[in-house]
């Protein structure tokens, strides 16, 4: 009602039509007077995963998506990794309802293992979508790649407070990054224009858990003295001394703990 600015009568009419189209999808529980998704739920509409994630990340949470029509004059980067829409659906439900997920996860180091995770946020690291979740196997918060999650199902049990988002210190801590043109760049003005720098510096406030991804995505030299060589290094993290001991930085170019 709030989102579409319609009245009770309109909502009731729409729900009645939906129940006629998909009688096995909804169940009205009189205890809370809410419609709940049934185990026999089958989607009436097909949704494109890329459109769903784009709309969610842009703040459109009504679940509406449609295949994106390519433009003839504006071309985005090629996306090689697209998660299944059903995986997205299960994760968003689990996050909204504070539920755990039982699944199998295929990692590069351990192969296929059974996991129980408690997801709280979906994020794009620049290359692929992952879910930030508490991992009951290792008893800490980790990132899980969407496309490596299989045989997922929700667990309808209360979640202990230490497994909720508020206990994820790396996610909740905000770090300030000072990024400058790499000292090896002959004409730093070009880099300053690329990144809309002010006085030769770009200041960003980023969640600790995401810092390493950002540095790798943009090839930011994270060595203490900007020692990395190569035309791909246009940027340098000039306040690297303030960012020691951060686990996500281990994937950042040139990062070494002092």
How is the topology of this model organized?
Layout: H1 8-21, E1 26-29, E2 34-37, H2 49-57, H3 85-97, E3 100-107, E4 111-124, E5 129-135, E6 140-145, E7 149-155, H4 169-172, E8 174-181, H5 188-194, E9 202-207, H6 211-217, E10 220-221, E11 235-237
Parallel strand pairs: 10-11
Antiparallel strand pairs: 1-2, 3-4, 3-7, 4-5, 5-6, 8-9, 8-11
Question: What does the model show?
Answer:
With about 260 residues, this protein is of the alpha+beta class. The protein folds into three domains: about 1-45, no CATH class; about 45-65 and about 80-165, no CATH class; about 175-250, no CATH class. Helix content is about 20%, strand content about 25%. The protein is built from six helices and eleven strands. A hairpin with a 3-residue loop joins β3 (about 100-105) and β4. The longest helix has 14 residues, at about 10-20. The radius of gyration is 22 Å and the shape is globular. The mean pLDDT is about 90.
């Amino acid at each position: 009602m709030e989102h579409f600015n319609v009245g009770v009568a309109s909502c009731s009419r729409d729900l009645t039509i939906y129940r006629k189209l998909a009688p096995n999808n909804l169940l009205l529980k009189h205890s809370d007077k809410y419609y709940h998704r049934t185990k026999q739920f089958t989607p009436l509409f097909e949704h494109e995963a890329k459109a769903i994630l784009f709309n969610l990340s842009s703040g459109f949470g009504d679940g509406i998506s449609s295949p994106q029509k390519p433009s003839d004059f504006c071309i985005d980067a090629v996306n090689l990794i697209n998660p299944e829409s059903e995986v997205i659906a299960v994760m968003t439900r689990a996050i909204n309802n504070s539920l755990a997920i039982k699944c199998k996860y295929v990692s590069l180091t351990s192969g296929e293992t059974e996991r129980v995770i408690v997801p709280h946020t979906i994020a794009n690291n620049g290359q692929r979508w992952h879910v930030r979740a508490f991992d009951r196997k290792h008893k800490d918060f980790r990132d899980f790649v969407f496309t490596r999650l299989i045989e997922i199902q929700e667990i309808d049990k209360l979640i202990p407070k230490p497994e909720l988002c508020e206990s994820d210190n790396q996610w909740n801590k905000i770090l300030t990054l000072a990024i400058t043109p790499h000292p090896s760049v002959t004409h730093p003005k070009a880099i300053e224009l690329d990144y809309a720098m002010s006085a030769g510096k770009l200041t960003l406030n980023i969640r600790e858990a995401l810092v390493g991804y950002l540095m790798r995505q943009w090839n930011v030299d994270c060595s203490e003295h900007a020692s990395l060589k190569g035309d791909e290094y246009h940027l340098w993290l000039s306040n690297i001394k303030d960012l020691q001991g951060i686990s996500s930085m281990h994937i950042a170019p040139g990062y070494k703990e002092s």
